[in-house]
Design brief:
Layout (H helix, E strand, L loop, with lengths): L5 H9 L6 H10 L7 E5 L20 H6 L2 H11 L5 E6 L6 H11 L4 E6 L7 H7 L3 E6 L5 H8 L4 H10 L5 E12 L8 H6 L5 E7 L18 H12 L4 E5 L2 H11 L1 H9 L2 E2 L4 E5 L2 E5 L9 E4 L4 E3 L8 H6 L12 E4 L6 H14 L1 H17 L2
Parallel strand pairs: 1-2, 1-11, 2-3, 3-4, 4-5, 5-6, 6-7, 7-10
Antiparallel strand pairs: 8-9, 9-10, 11-12, 12-13
Helix pairs in contact: 1-2, 4-5, 10-11, 11-12, 11-15
Length: 384
Amino acid sequence: MIKSSAMDYWFSVVHLGNTSPEFIHSMFASLHDERPPILSVVGERACNLQCHHCIFQAERSSNEMSLSNSLITAVKTIVIQMGANPIVVHEGRIFRPEHLEWLTAIREVRPDARIGMIDSGAYLNHAKQIEQSGFKFDWLDISLDGDRARHNLQRDDYDAFNVAIEGITNAKRFLTPRGYVTSLFTLTRFNQRIIAETEASLPKEITEWHITTLSPARPEINWLSVETRDFPRVWSQIVSVNKIRPVFVRVYVAEDILKLARAVGKEKFLSALQVGEVSNCSITLNLDGVSVTYYPQSVATSETFVIDADAHYRAPYSVAYTLEELRSGVSRFGEDLRDYTIGKVDQNSQFAILYDRDVELWANGFGRKALNKEISVFRQISKL
């Protein structure tokens, strides 16, 4: 008998209406068996940019804290215990030469790992140190959020577009032989009208182009979200561009799924949902030929294992809070953040034990709230 996954249960809860306490308990219980295949490492909390859409807030450098808390030990300890072919993401916020120590260590202890970095292109400031180390990435993701004017506006920096283009066109020097470049376009009010223009100007080095809506984590950036009335025009542009090159749309916000359903129509959306491809933490729909992957927050623990700059394992979306907030346990809004910090990671840490604790805390708190919102959104879709 094939065991149901958390996403199988999730589908039955939000789409089929199986919302009994026992069924929901089974959904969260299934997460214990679905350990994340991705290790996300936040090597530095400070950044040279303050992008309007960024999930992070402005912070001072955490480099000294990373060194004193032995981030390299934490990263090695966890990646050794992960399953075959783990994915390691240098997630933020900027690259520092000191990070080469733990990146190289991962390559040594897990030669089967695929290691990539999300960057603005500013990694080139340290090109010499990277080349001297001999380290190569398996992939680099460098965002372009529109043409020069929109990209610079969204990133609040007059030179950001040039930096991104340089990072993309020079990427091959820092990639393994099979390495590739992807680019993420974060959809906002600033760039919602120029999707086609952006695609036309993408450098040839970009292998995959991804479009995502805003992260749900920071309420301060909600004003940048595309409104429901504008979503049909956005979707029309995406469908047109997808005929030229494949577009991979990622959605993390339940409310944005409702906007999408309104844009394509209820029947088309529900038909695509019925035959959607389920993974351990997402469901992928084919809508008008476009691949749309939705990542429900309620089951987010199984997506990635996050090691923060202070060598602590933290719950999904914790990066929306500063290290000061997380370490104090209280947010700037007065929220209790203690359950976001699962524990310190050192040479004695056990991947399975830490992850199980994360699932328990998530199921009884943040994940439960997210599920209630998802149930509400899909009920609204069914009534469109």
